[in-house]
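Handover notes (outgoing to incoming on-call)

Open items:
1. Sarcosine oxidase subunit alpha: sequence verified, structure written out, both below. Nothing else pending on this one.
2. Nothing else urgent.
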Amino acid sequence: MNSPHTSSADTGTRRLPQATGIDSSRPLRFTVDGQAYSGFAGDTIASALIASGRIDCGASTYLGRSRGILSAGIEESNALVRVQPRVAGDVSESMLPATRVPITEGLEADYLSGLGILDPGQDELVYEHKHIHVDVLIVGAGPAGLAAAREAGKSGARTLLLDDRSAPGGSLLSSPGRSVEGGLDESIDDVSATEWIETTVNGFAEAEEVTYRPNTTVFGSYDSNFFVALEDRTRELVETEGTGSGASTDSADGDRDNTAPRAGTRQRVWHIRAKQVVLATGAHERPIVFADNDRPGIMLASAVRTYLNRFGVAAGQRIAIAATNDSAYELLADLHAAGIDVPAIIDSRTTASAMAERVVDTTGTRLILGSTVTGTAGQGPAGRISRVTVAALDEDAVAAGHGEDIDVDLLAVAGGFSPVIHLHGQRRGPIVWRSDIAAFVPRTPVRDQFTVGAINGDYSLEAALKDGAEAGNAAANRTGFAAALTVPKAAAMTFAPARPLWLVTSAEDDHTDLTTHFIDFQRDQSVADVQRAMNAGMRSVEHVKRYTSISTGGDQGKTSAVNAIGAIASILGETDLGSVGHTTFRAPFAPVPFAALAGRRKGELFDPARITAIHPWHVAHGAEFEDVGQWKRPWYYPRPGEDMEAAVLREGKAVRESVGFQDASTLGKIEIRGTDAGEFLGQIYTNGFKKLKVGKGRYGLMCKPDGMIFDDGVTLRVAEDRYYMTTTTGGAATVLEWLEEWHQTEWPSLDVVFTSVTEQWSTVAVAGPRSRDVIAKIAPNLDVSNEAFEFMGFRETTLANGIPARICRISFSGELAFEVNVENYYGLAVWEAVAEAGAEFDITPYGTEVMHVLRAEKGFIIVGQDTDGTVTPQDAGMEWIVSKLKDFIGKRSYSRIGTAREDRKHLVGVLPVDGTTRLAEGAQLITAGTPVTPEAGPVPMIGHVTSSYMSPSLDRPIGLAFVENGRNRTGEIIQTPVAGGLVDVEITSPVFYDPEGNRRDG
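Sarcosine oxidase subunit alpha structure tokens:
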């Protein structure tokens, strides 16, 4: 977007002719704090405001001090805005750096004082997630990143280049794009940097396997080269009035349209798995810590250069430069070429470097060596800087005397650079302090990664291009893609050593008084706050960080972290910042909206309801539903005039006296395959499965390592190397993860794999004395007699309607029962076939409530209702299922004293003595005669009720409970509080109905 020049009369802004990043043919209007401004396409809020003469922003968070725009990028800590909704369905966004928000027509924004306002409105825009695998991921599209992407891409390797800026080029975006007298030669391959960038990026569009995404911030780096990034497409969305911009033709997975965000997508979260990674993340410039270093008009030198050359904006008309290194002289050359007055450049070093001498000689600028800015005055508009005080430094970098005052309207500070090592640090990559450049850098890259360019502290263009090209070529080679290496050529550069200034003080200063020597602008934290933390005994940088809150704001310490470490070192008298240490890097690198993380998982999709193939029938027949896990399960089927209790009693009696049917499709189902499947299940379950015969099923119980019940279900042996496991509805995903965890971490040598098939099967449970008659009608080819079809057996057959089915004899009610399993597609058809076949027996659909009642009558537990993570199989009266011949998860725990105590709570039945009171689930049980008064409290509890129902078979309330030493207290009368009084309760066997089990076989 090249712009020849723009006059003030056109837009009300002041522009210089060398802008490389704006389109002057597209003026745009916007407002900030209710005041109208204008700018051009390509401008950020910050650049357009500076062009309009405004550099101040919102006051500081806690102290209310005047602040101004500090930087030109993601590291901004002062200029934070709230942007009003920009398209239909949008909401306002807070805490956005003005340096990163592109202006669009009609944009409305307000400056914030460090605290945002959450919009309570409904965000109706689209947020997406994309999951991809790539050969080479390159983070950063500066010169090193572009060179790496070019070399990796031409090999044919699937290459993804991500950059948080809106345009490629990195540090080159701050260069003038032309030769400047006395400045650096920033041409590449004998063409201007701007032309080289354009040619390189155009080459990406022609490469089959290269994807370049601007405005995409990689914010998380995890094990095995898994990265997460956020792509922001708000500008494109706004410019197309919510319809989305054209789809990109680049591709990271072979489909050239596949990576293009859908129309209307505002933001997209990328989940990336990369074989090789090149980190070309660059470096951020640091401020200098001196008195009143936070005034509007004090700006990073690199930012002044960016605004000057990329946006054609002079941030001031009389600019002093405070330098600690050679980078400041690049800015000096550009300011001189633009005709901007620079009264002095103040360099902390005592000897001028070769670069300093060349630029100063060319520009005629006054050079003040061995000195620094010690203070400022803010008499300009909105507290803008009006004067700097300069003083000489002694050999210990302590200011001597008052020095001189210099009138300015802007101070550019070049305090040194901090390489962006965050993604490297998130992987716990080793970090080392380099005193020659005063920066922390990676000692060595993480496995399968490369670090190139400024992240390594190599700030020369020549080194960045060379390292980037070689890394891109090597990364592609490692993934099996080879190509001839071509290294872009650039002029050799050498930079003299820096003289960092961590703390500008005089010999008389007391650190506790340095309340305006600011380290973290966003948190209003100064040297005095650091000293206060250290006076409290803090020495670790991590402790000081938390005591002061330095580096905990939205900018995450990008400009303050190293300065804080430097201040700690200065107070401790240390010269080696490496001995002080550094903070821990954690994701996210930059703030990420919750809306983006949620993606499409909001509204109905936040917790999507899962329904079975039979669900439409349930709805049509008036079922009431309950949520079990994510499933909608029929709870009961009320007829006109029935309440829940009446419906449940009717459904329960139908099962006990004739036949009922239930949709059991929601049970978890896992296929387990492999030659070692039986052995593996024997380790998972408390009972054995290795010798289970094909065609048979077995009830199994799982325990955690502490011996407590975890899940249960029936597992069928389908073939010698294949099992079909069922789990509780709510526990299916957890059980699958459990199996995978133990296989991968403890028994990886076992030949076994797991596949969730919950949604592949529909299951119809048919229970009751007439269930055999119903199954005989729908499966005429199957002999369903007791002799031919034994309990816990299963048969593969074809139903009368031609549907293949697997029919099992399994009962959770104690009645004769069958389960019909078919492919999910046929679920509704089979359900309707069962309903038709059972019509002559008045077959009745029953829901989960009746299922619970019937199993409670038989004393069967429900994991998660009758258990709570503290129940062993022995507590539940299930010693019979615990093998004494083999090992299994949790077995060792049964030898512990705690699990063998006589007074552990046991599963028992509880019956209200009055025969009418239904106990509350969760009700506490106490020994009869225990006083229940505040004076006698606390009341000792001996147990609690876990299940309580009105029994249709016994025509009275029943309950299950866990009571201390309960099995040895059968017949004892205990009590429970009900409605302000105490009700007598008898402890009984947990099996209330058919204790002999005669009804199981019909």
